[in-house]
Amino acid sequence: xxxxxxxxxxxxxxxxxxxxxxxxxxxxTGPELADRLGVTPRxxxxxxxxxxxxxxPVHAGxxxxxxxxxxxxxxxxxxxxxxxxxIATAVSLxxxxxxxxxxxxxxxxxxxxKLDRVxxxxxxxDVRALAGSVESFGGGRPPVDPEALMTLARACRDExxxxxxxxxxxxxxxxxxxxxxxxxxxxxxxxxxxDLDRADWRSFRVDRMTGVSARTWxxxxxxxxxxxxxxxxxxASRVYPHRARFLVHAPADTVxxxxxxxxxxxxPRDGERCEVVSGAGSLDFVLMHVLLLGHDFEVLDPPELxxxxxxxxxxxxxxxxxxxxxxxxx
Length: 330
Description:
Layout: H1 6-24, H2 30-37, H3 41-53, E1 58-60, E2 68-70, H4 83-97, H5 105-118, H6 121-132, H7 146-158, E3 160-168, E4 171-184, E5 189-195, E6 200-205, E7 210-218, H8 227-238, E8 242-248, H9 252-256, E9 264-268, E10 274-280, H10 283-291, E11 297-301, H11 304-321
Antiparallel strand pairs: 1-2, 3-4, 3-7, 4-5, 5-6, 8-10, 8-11, 9-10
Helix pairs in contact: 1-3, 2-3, 4-5, 4-6, 5-7
C-alpha cells in the first residue's frame, strides 16, 4: 500500500471534523458547515456522502429549518472529543468506577479502560489532578486509588503479569499474579487473579493493595472460573469459619432484594424457592439473619444447625410465655 497523499490526509481530517461538528449540534445548514470548514457547500455534500458510505446516518432536510442532522444508527459511532470533553468524561468515569453511580461501576471501568488506550499523555496529568481534587461523603466503597484501578484494568486487558503488596496473617507480602477480571460488588472492588506463588485462583480486595504495578511479561490465559460467581462465593462464605446452606420458600429475586450480594449467594431452585449460601463467625449469626428474612426455610447444611434451630425456638417460646410484671404496689 502506498502512503496517503496530502490531499487524502486533508480530506480525511476534514471529514472527521465534519463528524465532530454533527455530534455537537442537532442541525447544521450547508452554508454553516462550509463556513466552519472553509470549503464550498458542494464539498460539504461530498463529505456527507463519504460519511454515509462509512455507515453514519446523516439526514438532510430541505426548506426552513432544514439542514444536516446525524441520526441514530444501529451501532454507536466513534465519538470525537476535544481535550476538555475527554478530561470531563474520564473524571466522570472515575467517579462511576468509585461507586458514585449505583450499578454503573463495572461499565464505567470498561469505558475508562477504552478511553485510557487513546487518551493523550498530556491529558493524563490533568485527569489525575482533577480526580484527586474530588471528594465524596456518605456510604459507599472504601476509597480506591484510581491509578491502581487503572493499572489493574490495563493488565487484565493486555494480559500481562501484575504485582502488589497485600496483607495476610503473617504480615504484608508481595503477590505475583496473572490478573483476569476486576469485579465490583455493592461495597468493594475485587481482582480475580491466578496467584503464581500459590498456584491457584484468588480474589483480592483492591482497597487493601499497595505498590500496584504491571510487568511487560505477557501470559497465556488459562481456563478461569466465572469471575463474579467466584468472588461473590468467596466474599459471602468461603472466608468465614462457618458456612451454611438454606432452602428458602420465596423466589430468588425476592430474597436477593433483601440480602446484599456480599452477604450471601442466592441460587434459584424453582419459581417459588431458592437456595441461600452464607457464612459467618458463628452459626447462630447466620441463622438469625435467615430467620429475619420473614420466609419459611429449611436447613440443608450443616446438620448441627438443625439442633441450633430447635434450641433457638425453645428460647423464643420461653421468652414469649413470660408474664409481664404488673405495676409496683406502694
